[in-house]
Design brief:
Length: about 170
């Protein structure tokens, strides 16, 4: 038997990877009888979904959370387990997350988003009394950070009538 495909191939079977919906045909001819038959096959190509993914916010402080939001598909599966378009994460270190989206036609595509985690600075006050008596000498409050490159923003709760205290600052 001999074969002639619409692709020009003369093999008994072909492997194709169409980029768009394509109609294929093959003519099969018997070498004994010279009789032939033609069949056609339509290969429908469904496009993979275009996955859009974002983290809100993309940068968090240690201990905080971010929302991961995906769109562009019908269903979603996150590498962390949830099967929703949106999920909440609380990573302790900078972490990348992958979501696989599936279209209504059953085609899959994936997207990746990274949530960056900044460490929480360590801030301390030395051994200061929590309470002092009226008339005692004032206490200097020292706020320090062992974490480099940290600006300390502070606010003091100053009782009415107290003088000489600084209510807030950055340092």
């Amino acid at each position: 038997n001999s074969y002639l495909w619409s692709t020009g191939s003369t093999s008994s079977a072909i492997s194709v990877t169409p980029g768009t919906t394509t109609l294929y045909s093959v003519i099969g001819t018997s070498t004994l009888t010279s009789c032939s038959n033609t069949i056609t096959q339509l290969i429908t190509v469904n496009q993979s979904p275009q996955i859009n993914i974002q983290a809100q916010p993309p940068v968090i402080c240690s201990g905080k959370s971010a929302n991961l939001i995906a769109n562009g598909a019908t269903t979603y599966t996150w590498n962390t387990g949830p099967t929703t378009a949106t999920t909440n994460v609380t990573p302790s270190i900078t972490t990348s997350y992958t979501v696989t989206g599936t279209s209504a036609a059953g085609c899959n595509n994936s997207g990746v988003v990274t949530v960056s985690v900044n460490p929480t600075p360590t801030v301390s006050t030395p051994n200061l009394p929590q309470v002092i008596c009226s008339g005692e000498p004032s206490q200097e409050v020292v706020i320090s950070s062992v974490t480099p490159n940290v600006n300390i923003v502070w606010t003091a709760n100053i009782p009415a009538g107290m003088t000489g205290a600084i209510p807030s600052g950055i340092g």
